Amino acid sequence: MKSSFTLALLIVSFAGCNKNVSTEPPPPLPATSTKLPSGQPTGKLPPGHPPTVAGKVAPTASKGHVRFQAPPEWKAEKPDNSMRRAQYRMPAKDGKSEAATLAVFHFPGSGGGVLGNLKRWYGQFKSPPQPKEEKRKVGGMDVTVAYATGIYMLSSAPMAGGKKTEKPNWALLAAIAHSPSGPWFFKVVGPKETVDFHRARFDALVNSFTVAGEAKKKIAPALPASKGEKK
Fold it and tell me: What is the CATH number of the domain that holds 104?
């Protein structure tokens, strides 16, 4: 009788312990990699910005948001500040030199507009650059792609006022996509050699843009490894 009562207690305890055990697989952890020199601290969200979780890649699957496919060679990182929806490390060609960074932003409404943001980004160079811009139509969205080079003034803070460090021969490569949920900003900065090495992959990223909630388009195939590139 006593052993039966003990067995019943064990069964009840076991059932209680498993009550809160989820059968869902744990979410994947962000990939770890060498810290980039951006070193930007977490900043406050501007008015109207949707909530984000610091240190995690924010989802882009909500209806009307831009979906995109990052190349496998890029490493997902913890965003340097809470205004970033996602962040990727783009390794140098030789795997040893300074890497470039892709930061993804989204602000409801106009987000400052295309011209306003491009002007601000160009102003982050020591001298006004001679940018190249082009318009595209991707996934039913108007997309502006821009490229500029020069001495980039890297800031230690996400907004104006941080300490500036001169970065000679750096490049800016950006895309602004107009989605039903507002503009999405994809901004790459880093050594020109590294940015140029990834330009074809960035084009593939832009060509993968689709609007969440709408029919998916065929994603551009992955690019073959360049000669001398480490996999």
Answer: 3.40.1000.10
